[in-house]
Design goal:
This protein is mainly α. The protein contains 22 helices and 2 strands. It has a two-stranded parallel sheet with strand order 1-2. Helix 22 links the parallel strand 1 and strand 2. Helix 8 runs antiparallel to helix 18. The C terminus is likely disordered. InterPro entries: Na/Glc_symporter_sf (IPR038377), Na/solute_symporter (IPR001734), Sodium:Solute_Symporter_SSF (IPR051163). Belongs to the sodium:solute symporter (SSF) (TC 2.A.21) family. GO terms for molecular function: symporter activity. Keywords: Cell membrane, Ion transport, Membrane, Sodium, Sodium transport, Transmembrane, Transmembrane helix, Transport.
Length: 645
């Protein structure tokens, strides 16, 4: 016999079932996504087979020889070249890329996890909007000019130029593993929401999501990914905002929500507790959030690939600024949604009476209970969550396939495949990764707390790779031995903390201290045969201190460990002679501290004639003789250093 609470949950679902309109909205989102792949794979292909990997290459390199007709693309499947498939021939526009960056990062994890975080732990996490904005300044000032000047296909190529192939391989392998761990979680989130509002099997709907995403990513490449993301983020934003507006009006306005949140102890923006063990504090969110967001957005290939799809540094900066402002706004909306949920359930917590089994089901449950009677609203919400998931999934598939080609096959194994083989490797990787994600879906089903799990997994890779790139760009004297030692130390320490925390949490030794909830307003049917007790938290004093740390501190510890260990080992093993380093490999903010002799080597690290962009020249103050051909540097090497127009 079913329990009363199960009966009530089923009654809510039966009362507000998906209508034909809802299914049409959800199905339309999937069809439009697949159509983008077909459009950019077959009808919007580039007819130019040149890779256009560098704006400053001599023009004659791209001109056909006299009497010889230009080659026509022979590939009839999807994008004409690998450069078009992975980078859109570096001709994409700022706004679509900004929306793609937003859609790719703001996944279903954010839509479902952030409101639950605010509901359970208060508004301190809302402060994350500040480090997001600061991250944009750091990325555009410190890291982006280096990537734009080098014009690399993969961010990890930088590590080979700055250090050696082993450092590049370590970072790229870590990236692939991290993305493979995150893939099934991206699929699980929308499947969970769909199951909550329809009762549809999680594994079946997860498979449908994967197949659609594999299809349009396989055909259209980065162009399909970017432009699909652009309209998906609109659906995603509208779906959440409409639900929030309707919910706010239904409860009597923001004032009522705020008063209930204050009474329930949810409002806390300035918790200055210096303890690193507390989950959300002012310092943890501000410092940890800045390190986490900067490490990810500055050097992670999923982000850098789209920066590199833009034509120049100015356009890339503009796109990033739009991205960070949009992200801060959207995260703030999700945080307000958490207050809305508490305003609705302040006297009848759904988790306590088991109407939901995990905190991440709170928002879908609210949608069905509060606006499920409005035809099309559940469908719009689910379309938004699925759009967010498809965006993240497609970006990961496209980017990881590129890393497998550029960094693993070419970089690690030193294989130079033909164009046909490269196409097979990239597209085959998309299929294999998508199918592997489906196979791992059952693992995520056993995990609770999507937000912290995803952040913890990403922190291991982000902290280590972010630290290595920071060491290379901001510590000019660092050498290969220092980078390897720092990278290994950072990965081991952050991995140790992360895995130890997960094991301690699974054993019940460390339990997040949630804010109190109430069931005083629940109807009698829900609390019948339910024993309401105050939560009892274990004594954590005996737990190893590192396992008790807030997840916010994992990335700062990883980055700091890499930089400190790398710098010390570099000094002990013989620091690099700064007179002979290529300044193009160092961030412009450090150029003023480099010896003047080093600028004679500008551009020599990258193979082939390398040039200095106008933006890079402005920041580096490289002396240029305007009377010399191509703006040759005053102490340059016979015109190898050229200025781009």
């Amino acid at each position: 016999m079913s329990s009363p609470r199960s009966t009530m949950s089923d009654s809510i679902r039966e009362m507000y079932q998906f209508s034909v309109v809802d299914y049409c909205m959800f199905g339309g989102m999937l069809i439009l996504s697949a159509a983008c792949g077909i459009y950019y794979g077959f009808f919007k292909r580039s007819t130019n087979t040149s890779s256009s990997t560098s704006e400053c290459e001599d023009e004659q390199d791209h001109l056909p020889e006299a009497g010889v007709p230009a080659k026509k693309p022979t590939n009839t499947f999807g994008s004409a070249t690998i450069d078009e498939y992975l980078l859109g021939s570096r001709k994409l526009k700022a706004f679509p890329v900004a929306m793609s960056l937003l859609a790719g990062y703001i996944s279903g994890v954010t839509i479902l996890g952030t409101p639950a975080e605010i509901y359970n732990f208060g508004t301190q996490y809302w402060l994350i909007a500040v480090p997001i904005l600061l991250m944009g300044v750091a990325v555009c000032t410190v890291y982006l000019p280096v990537f734009c000047s080098l014009k690399l296909n993969s961010s990890y190529e930088y590590l080979e130029l700055r250090f050696n192939p082993y450092v590049r391989s370590m970072a790229s392998v870590m990236f692939v593993i991290n993305q493979m761990l995150f893939l099934p979680m991206v699929i699980y989130v929308p499947a969970l929401a769909f199951n909550q509002v329809t009762g549809f099997n999680i594994y079946v709907i997860g498979a449908i999501v994967c197949v659609v995403c594999i299809f349009y990513t396989l055909l259209g490449g980065i162009k399909a990914v970017v432009f699909t993301d652009a309209w998906q983020v609109v659906v995603m934003f509208i779906s959440v905002v409409v639900v929030v507006i309707i919910g706010t009006i239904a409860l009597g306005g923001p004032g009522v929500i705020w008063d209930r949140a204050v009474e329930g102890g949810r409002i806390d923006f300035f918790n200055f507790n210096p303890s690193m063990y507390e989950r959300q504090t002012f310092w943890a969110v501000l410092i940890g959030g800045f390190f986490y967001w900067t490490s990810y957005n500055a050097v992670n290939q999923t982000m850098v690939q789209r920066y590199m799809s833009l034509p120049n540094l100015k356009t890339a900066k503009f796109s990033i600024y739009m991205f960070v402002v949009g992200t801060a706004i959207f995260v703030s909306v999700c945080c307000y949604t958490g207050l809305l949920l508490y305003g609705k359930y302040y006297d009848c917590d759904p988790a306590t009476v088991e109407l939901v089994t995990t905190s991440d089901q709170l928002f879908p449950h609210y949608v069905m209970e509060s606006v499920g009677n409005l035809r099309g609203m559940p469908g719009l919400f689910i379309a938004g969550v699925f759009g967010a998931a498809l965006s993240s999934l497609s970006v990961i598939l496209n980017t990881t396939s590129g890393v497998l080609l550029e960094d693993i096959l070419k970089g690690l194994f030193r294989v130079t495949p033909s164009s046909l083989v490269a196409n097979i490797v990239v597209r085959g990787s998309v299929v294999v990764l998508g199918l592997a994600a489906m196979g791992c879906l059952f693992i995520v089903d056993k995990l609770d707390g999507i937000l912290i799990v995803s952040a913890t997994l990403a922190a291991i890779g982000n902290g280590t790779t972010g630290g290595i790139f920071t060491l290379g760009m901001l510590v000019p004297w660092s050498n290969t031995k220092g980078a390897l030692a720092g990278g290994i130390a950072g990965a081991l320490l952050s991995g140790w903390i992360s895995l130890g925390s997960q094991f301690a949490s699974a054993a019940g030794e460390v339990v997040p201290h949630k804010l109190p909830v109430s069931v005083d307003g629940c109807i009698e049917e829900l609390i019948t045969n339910t024993t309401i007790v105050n939560p009892i938290y274990p004594d954590e004093s005996g737990v190893f201190p590192l396992y008790r740390l807030s997840y916010h501190w994992i990335t700062p510890i990883g980055v700091t460990t890499v930089v400190l260990v790398g710098s010390i080992v570099s000094f002990l093993t013989g620091p690099r002679d700064l007179r002979y380093i290529d300044p193009e490999l160092i961030s412009p903010v450090v150029h003023r501290f480099l010896p003047r002799e080093s600028f004679s080597y500008f551009g020599t690290a990258n193979k082939g004639p390398t040039c200095v962009s106008e933006e890079m020249q402005t920041q580096t103050n490289i002396p240029v003789d305007s009377s010399a051909p191509y703006g040759t540097a005053a102490n340059g090497q016979n015109g190898r250093v050229k200025a781009r127009n």
